[in-house]
Amino acid sequence: MHLSIESEIAQTAAALVVDEGLEYGPAKRRALKQLGLPARTALPNNERVEEAVREHLALFCADTQPGELQVLRRLALLWMERMAAFRPYVGGPVWHGTATRLSDIYLQLFCDDSKSAEIALINRGVDYDAHTVRGLHGQPVEALSIGCPSTELGLMVGVHLLIYDLDDLRGALRADACGRTPRGDAAALHQLLQNGQEFEP
């Protein structure tokens, strides 16, 4: 694909991710429509879109995004502590440092019993919606979605608990295409908050 077209799609998708809170896949497809490109146009990979997201944040959100990221990381850590029995890991924009006030929190739980996390939420009196999403390696996985009010952000934040078998944990920690750790445990997230780091090591 011609580089300029790829860059244009990535930049348009990045604006949708930041300004409307879209996930990368829907943002890339919407970008095609906005740019009037054929549906079969090859799309940039997620790494290229993430690079464009970082550029967009630096240009347009440098004053607000770091603070919003810290709020979301603190909320993620709170839920990781609540669900500590299920080996929680945080991934996505909250872990990678690109989250804004419109971003949801994605936690992966690695459970001996797939129903145990659901029972824990019921015992806590937490309302949740159960549905299926694409998880590791594109496979369907059960997600328990919770709406959490944030007084600091002044809105409801979506927290999604993705339920995996304990055996899936080993593969979940392999480095991604950029050589980075794709997710972190509570200790790693706490370290980022303590150090005020934007990106994971």
Which structural traits does this protein have?
five-stranded mixed sheet; alpha+beta; 201 residues
Structure characterization notes:
There is one protein chain. By secondary structure, this protein is of the alpha+beta class. It folds into 2 domains: 58 residues; 131 residues, 2-Layer Sandwich (Beta Polymerase, domain 2), CATH 3.30.460. 45% of the residues lie in helices and 19% in strands. It contains 8 helices and 5 strands; from the N terminus they run ααααβαβαβββαα. The chain has a 5-stranded mixed sheet. A hairpin with a 5-residue loop joins strand 3 and strand 4. The longest helix is centred in the N-terminal third of the chain and has 18 residues. It is globular, with a radius of gyration of 17 Å. It starts with a helix and ends in a 6-residue tail after the last helix. The relative contact order is 0.13.
Concise summary:
The chain has 8 helices and 5 strands. With 201 residues, it is an alpha+beta fold.
- Largest beta sheet: strand ordering: 1-2-5-4-3
CATH class of the largest domain: Alpha Beta
Which architecture of the largest domain would the CATH scheme give at its second level? 2-Layer Sandwich
Number of domains: 2
Number of DSSP strands?
A: 5
Q: Tell me the span between the first and last alpha carbons.
A: 32 Å
Indicate the overall shape.
globular
- Find the CATH topology of the largest domain: Beta Polymerase, domain 2
As a percent range, the share of helical residues equals: 40-55%
Secondary-structure element series: HHHHEHEHEEEHH
Share in β-strands: 15-25%
